[in-house]
Amino acid sequence: MNSEPPVIEFRDVVKSFGDHTVLKDLNFSVKRGERVTLIGPSGSGKTTILRLVMTLEKLSDGYIFIDGEPLTHTERNGKRVPVSAKEQKRLRTKIGMVFQQFNLFPNMTVLENIIEAPIHVLGIPKQEAVAKAKDLLEQVGLPDKADAHPTSLSGGQQQRVAIARALAMDPEILLLDEVTSALDPEVVVEVLGILRKVAETTDVTMLIVTHEMSFARDVSHRVMMLDGGKIVESSDPATIFTEPKEERTRQFLSAVLSSGL
Where does the record place the ABC transporter domain (predicted)? Predict the structure, then answer.
């Protein structure tokens, strides 16, 4: 019997912005190497989930665990208390995120963007970080762009650099937040192709937010439908996309697929 804790676990998670509650007592877990895609209408809480895992947003209540360890809060003597900043930072190094808007440093070259965190956060020697960065640029099809600045690159190229930057940290967990929504349609295919290759060739755990339903169907082990801050349905892609059990899932997929997304 496998007693390994989930790589990601949400336990009674609540997230509110002012009077608006985005996530309501959310509970789910993701196993090691599992690829889980979150789908649902705008405002259902999908990106908020990723930002909470990345500690870019603060929990209102509840707990998030990474490899069984509390990420931001733990329970001590019956009270919910914050974990230390040092502990949170240690767990954060296991997590990489690729954003919708690339978030590259414009004053740095492509190579400098990729090696910055491995050197300064993980303490990897510069020579080793550079060698790995060049290998990753080869993998994402940009071996000749190491000395370019992000502003000279197309959106698709910037997103490929952002993927390489996230992978340079050797993350256990890769968070993908609508990584193709800011791209021109003709480059969406190439970026998704790179992510498919990452999925096929590594055992990295992925939590994905996307409106590309064919990508969700191909890459995911599990798809979770969210609406109103709650999980409406969670199943394998074949079931979700061909025989969804919940009417809300059927309505959403019908609207999304008929609009050609």
Answer: 8-253
Reported as a single tens digit per residue, the pLDDT across 39-93 is 999 889 999 999 999 999 999 999 999 999 999 999 998 899 999 999 999 999 9
Supply the range of the domain harboring residue 163: 105-170
pLDDT per residue over 170-226, tens digit each? 999 999 999 888 788 878 888 888 888 888 888 899 999 998 898 899 899 999 999
As a whole number of Å, the end-to-end CA separation of the chain is 41
Number of structural domains, the chain? 2
The answer on 240 and 133 residing in a single domain is no
* Of 91, 15, 88, residue with least CA distance to 46: 15
Single out the residue of 129, 112, 40, 55 nearest to residue 85, CA to CA. Answer: 55
- Is 67 buried (19+), middle (13-18) or exposed (0-12) by CB count in 10 A? middle
Residues 166 and 183 in one domain: no
φ/ψ (deg, to 5) at 106: -70, -25
Read off the DSSP letter of residue 148: S
